[in-house]
């Protein structure tokens, strides 16, 4: 049971590394996007991100821009396959939504 393992031969490494410091500073120079900035996502992805976020419990304040009503503030509490449900029991068709943003 007590087999002797083969010895490991370390390869000598005499070069000095600088790549970790460059990577660290590169992250500091990048612009960071705000978590509320969802402009680069599709409407479906924006809605999924809102409902899957850690701060969504049972309602979320959002601004929804639709083709018919323009921009309007809503408190969304749920979702069906093709619509959002607001606190005022309104249904907003997802296909009508042009943009949605978290307040």
Description:
With about 100 residues, the protein is an alpha+beta fold. It has a domain at about 35-100. The chain contains two helices and five strands, in the order H-H-E-E-E-E-E.
Provide the fold topology.
Elements: H1 19-29, H2 43-52, E1 60-66, E2 70-79, E3 83-86, E4 91-93, E5 97-102
Antiparallel strand pairs: 1-2, 1-5, 2-3, 3-4
Give a quick summary of the entry:
This protein is α+β, with helices and mostly antiparallel strands. It contains two helices and five strands. The N and C termini lie far apart (65 Å).
Descriptive labels:
103 residues; five-stranded antiparallel β-sheet
Kindly name the structural category.
alpha+beta
Beta percentage is 25-35%
Low-pLDDT runs of 5+ residues are 23-27, 32-36
**Mean of all residue-level pLDDT scores:** 80
Number of helices: 2
Largest sheet: 5 strands, antiparallel
Strand line-up in the sheet with most strands: 4-3-2-1-5
Radius of gyration: 25 Å
> Judging from the principal axes of the Cα atoms, what is the shape?
elongated
Helix content: 10-25%
Write down the secondary-structure element order: HHEEEEE
